[in-house]
Specification:
By secondary structure, the chain is of the alpha+beta class. It has ten helices and 45 strands. The chain is globular, with a radius of gyration of 30 Å. The two termini are 40 Å apart.
Length: 824
């Protein structure tokens, strides 16, 4: 009620005499068919263990009612409360499916939080994962045999530098974890309370020294990095107490040996941290590489880069000792043998060296290589792959024997003969030591999954590659009308595997295929999530504009559509990005529709055609200025002209909508065209001066390029709008630059200008609109708004009473102040 009251006070304070208001305190609901789509459909991600007998099913996390804070440092977006990377998939639920018997275990005794970085132990009994709460990240495992989750440690994990803050020991006896040393410190100077405070609100901003040119570290960023990056490694056994490994350090990598007796660790040298660039950080140019025992005793220093020397000293050293080492890896077929590449700075070839436990002898030459080795992919003791960096993003794969690496290295056409649209990926497994390796059969065959494209349709496949004959042979491929892809191999010959299968009319489910006996078994039976959408016609459309650029969209037609009965209203919905992680970059007419309440699809039930656009250009550092505006205008005109010429759309009944930066596009198009009868804009940026670093820091900030921020702000062109506008915003929105004031000021401007507009504030939602009541009311408001513009006989809701605190008397026309209008 406090939020509602604050909202009412705001509305009563900012309204002008010609506005009409509804009761702000009452939630309303749309029709049942539309409301059905607030339950966002998401098939669990499947993770099959190395034994091939259990499959972990992980429910992708929906919005949880609060927006996790996001900070950026050295190109890493992370949650400052937990230090975990923000782009890591989060899961809200966990269950297990036994592949042979079909037995299902539903896990309900995990504490509240989100599951991140799940990983099976090599023996297939335990699933480890990070449980992220609002303030911390802890290490847990689920014991499939005992049917219970176990918390392994109360320590907060450190996921800032090493994204996955733990790894399994190869023997499955425990894990190595990177623990956060320093306490959580979040000092966002602009984090304001979501509701009106009871007393004065005081916020400080301390002056900071500006960073030097080409350096990402000012004093604030330096302190932030030092606090975040410091970690302490622990050995965490499944039974017993965790044991610290060595002393705290700024770890950039850690990897245990296959026999679980030693650690390879990389530690950043932070003495001259101010010199580090984003590229240095990503390439670990400041990392010292050492081999430790399991109690942290340094056994051998593999490499220490000379980054702390002056430029002249570096040049002098390069002449006297130009050796560079890289690509440090444990041999997967040995207990504790480290291999790395070593070369002169100017040389085009490299030498591979190795050293074995107890690391007291000098390193030995392992193999000579013509070219630069970027990675070794281990297989069995007869076959491994060298990945050679050819520069410009190109790579070459060579087969060799780990036991006799000095013999011929055979160039493989593993990825060379691919079409530009084809994708291939090696199938990995666990060897007898429990180490992740490429799956090899008969000492010569590799397995590949991927997809090939023909006429814009991606077809997944499974193939076997003969490294001796350099030949790729197909084992299986998906067939119409299904999109089916292999997610795990169950047999050594590649004839038995698990697939993920879907079609336009059938939701995604998991299946087990045995090609030897031609047997297919359905492992999961997820029902159709939107029964009311069955039978709705969907087509994929493309619109070419501006010299060959293409706009891609899904087009939905209601069941009632009959071209002989005339044209129908159309809602064009702009999306800011892909809606579903698993289907990114997949082109196929056989995918199950990605439906949810946040785009225009629900309103196909109202008898409207819906065009759900996937890739309309949006404002960014690379897309801006008149070029962007022209692209928007040209694309919009092409789309509208096409729909009208095909006899589908009534040119006087076409609406456009979007959220976030797509909502900014909506307002841009309304200010620059007269193609649309109305617009729906949710949580957009309309006054870019309130997002002063949208295009970057320093030379690209508001203070350096004011004209750019003004030119891109639809607010300053609001006087050009001829259509009506429905503005919706989450009252708790604290995303940078997207505060509710954006919609408030745009509504105020439209109201001043005498335009037709409506403002709806959703009191319990942030930028993502996660509250169910708010979502339903949002759909209701959009439903009623479209009816006003689309129905032949508009249905206007009668307001029986106006809340007392919103009553006002219109100001007499002669008594109004004669202030000049800012809109020209």
């Amino acid at each position: 009620m406090i939020i509602i009251r604050a909202l009412m006070l705001f509305v009563s304070a900012c309204i002008l005499s010609n506005a009409v208001y509804a009761d702000a305190s009452s939630y309303k609901q749309p029709s049942p068919e539309i409301a059905e789509l607030i339950q966002q459909h998401s098939v669990p991600e499947a993770l099959v263990n190395a034994k091939g007998n259990w499959m972990a099913l992980l429910d992708l996390a929906a919005n949880t009612g609060h927006q996790s804070p996001v900070s950026t440092l050295l190109g890493v977006q992370y949650n400052p409360m937990t230090s975990l990377h923000s782009d890591a998939p989060r899961y809200s639920g966990l269950s297990f499916k036994h592949i042979d018997t079909g037995a299902l275990i539903r896990v309900s005794n995990i504490p509240q939080g989100q599951i991140v970085y799940p990983a099976w132990s090599a023996n297939g009994r335990y699933l480890a994962f990070v449980l992220e709460t609002q303030t911390r990240a802890h290490l847990w495992v689920y014991d499939i045999k005992q049917r219970k989750p176990v918390s392994l440690s109360n320590f907060s994990l450190n996921g800032f530098v090493v994204a996955k803050p733990y790894e399994w020991l190869a023997d499955g006896s425990g894990l190595i974890a990177n623990v956060r040393v320093n306490s959580v410190e979040v000092k966002s100077s602009l984090t304001l309370p979501a509701i009106k405070p009871n007393g004065p609100l005081v916020v400080n901003s301390m002056a900071q020294a500006a960073p030097e040119k080409n350096n990402v570290f000012g004093a604030k960023k330096h302190a932030e990095f030092m606090n975040l990056a410091l970690g302490q490694l622990y050995k965490v056994p499944l039974k017993g107490k965790e044991v610290p490994i060595g002393q705290p350090a700024y770890f950039s990598e850690f990897k245990s040996s296959p026999d679980a007796t030693n650690l390879l660790v990389a530690m950043m040298d932070v003495q001259n941290l101010s010199q580090m660039t984003k590229q240095d950080f990503q390439q670990q140019n400041y990392s010292v590489w050492q081999i430790w025992g399991m109690r942290g005793a340094p056994l051998h220093e593999v490499y220490r880069p000379q980054q702390t020397l002056s430029e002249q000293a570096l040049l002098a050293q390069a002449i006297s000792d130009p050796t560079v080492k890289s690509g440090f890896q444990w041999r997967a077929d040995k207990g504790a043998t480290l291999v790395w590449a070593q070369s002169d700075l100017a040389a085009e070839s490299e030498s591979l060296y190795s050293i074995s436990a107890p690391f007291r002898r000098e390193p030995r030459l392992y193999a000579e290589v013509d070219g630069r080795v970027s990675e070794i992919i281990w297989g069995d003791n007869q076959l491994a792959l060298m990945v050679i960096d050819l520069g410009h993003g190109k790579q070459e794969y060579r087969a060799f024997s780990p036991l006799t690496p000095g013999r011929a290295q055979v160039k493989l056409n593993l990825f060379d003969d691919m079409a530009a649209s084809e994708r291939r990926e090696l199938v990995m497994t666990k060897n007898d030591l429990g180490v992740s390796v490429a799956k090899v059969a008969g000492g010569r065959y590799l397995f590949i999954t991927g997809s090939k494209s023909k006429e814009g349709v991606d077809t997944p496949f499974l193939a076997r590659f003969d490294t001796r004959g350099n030949l790729l042979t197909s084992i299986w491929q998906s067939s119409a009308p299904y999109f089916e892809q292999v997610i795990a191999l169950l047999s050594n010959d590649g004839m038995q595997f698990v697939t993920r299968k879907e079609s336009r009319d059938n939701p995604t489910n998991y299946f087990s295929r045995n090609l030897t006996f031609d047997v297919v078994e359905q492992l999961t039976k997820y029902p159709h999530p939107y029964p009311s959408m069955q039978g709705i016609r969907k087509e994929e459309m493309q619109f070419a504009f501006d010299g060959g650029k293409k706009i891609k969209a899904d087009f939905y037609l209601p069941n009632s559509f009959d071209p002989s009965l005339g044209r129908i209203p159309v809602l064009i919905w702009l999306n800011s990005g892909p809606a579903k992680v698993s289907n990114q970059n997949i082109e196929s007419p056989y995918l199950f529709p990605e439906l949810h309440a946040m785009n225009g699809v629900p309103f196909v039930h109202e008898g409207y055609a819906i065009l759900n656009i996937k890739n309309m250009p949006i404002l960014s550092t690379l897309s801006q200025g008149e070029q962007l505006d022209k692209q928007l205008r040209d694309a919009a005109k092409t789309i509208v002209d096409t729909l009208v010429s095909q006899g589908i759309a009534d040119k006087d009944k076409i609406a456009i909508g979007g959220q976030g930066l797509a909502a900014t596009n909506v307002l841009k198009l309304l200010t620059q065209t007269e193609l649309f009868v109305t617009g729906i804009a949710r949580s957009g940026l309309y006054n870019l001066t309130l997002a002063p670093f949208l295009f970057g820091d320093n030379a690209h900030s508001l203070w350096a390029e004011q004209s750019k921020y003004l030119a891109h702000s639809p607010l300053f062109s609001a006087n050009n709008i001829r259509s009506s506008v429905l503005l919706i915003h989450g009252y708790q929105d604290r995303m940078e630059g997207r505060f509710p004031v954006q919609s408030e000021r745009m509504f105020s401007a439209l109201n001043d200008l005498g335009k037709t507009a409506k403002l709806v504030m959703l009191p319990n939602s942030d930028h993502q609109y996660s509250n169910e009541q708010d979502l339903l009311h949002m759909l209701y408001e959009q439903q009623q708004w479209l009816k006003l513009h689309f129905d032949p006989l508009p249905e206007v809701e009668e307001i029986s009473a106006v809340p007392e605190n919103l009553r006002f008397e219109p100001v007499a026309e002669e008594a109004q102040f004669d202030y000049p209008s800012p809109w020209g």
